[in-house]
Every structure is written in C-alpha cells, then in structure tokens.
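Handoff note, outgoing to incoming analyst
You'll be picking up this chain. Sequence as last confirmed:
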Amino acid sequence: MTTVYVAVQGDTPMHSASTLQAALDAALARYTQYLPAENYNFRWDEHAPGVWRLMSRHKDRKGRHTWTGRAVHAVEHTSA
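Most recent structure output, in case you need it:
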C-alpha cells in the first residue's frame, strides 16, 4: 500500500498528490487564487494524525490564526 494525499475543501475532494508537500502547496495555491496572499499569514496544522488543516490570519490583525475550509488527508491507496 502507498499513501496518497487528498486535498479537500470542506467535504469535497479537490485534487490528490503523491507527496504531502505537493498536496499542501497545491491546496494553498488554490485557496489564494483569488485572495491577495501577501496580506495574510498561512500555516498548516496537523489537526489529527494524517489530517492537516490550513489556517490563516490577516497581517494587520493580532491574535490567533483561524481555520479555513482547506485540509489535506493522508489516505492509503491500494492498486490492483
């Protein structure tokens, strides 16, 4: 078995990748497609084992990052 990383928006799968970094990068790129990314700080938090959630915070604001609807899940893949 191999691990595949599936990026989701809410409960909808958006894409998959063979490496975690590729999935994280693609999910962030898709999230910031229509957003002025230079105005925000982003970070990935391992919410649960095998689940990373994207958090963001506007640079003008203090305090905690907030959850976005983007996440990456590690999924076992079996090929026949």
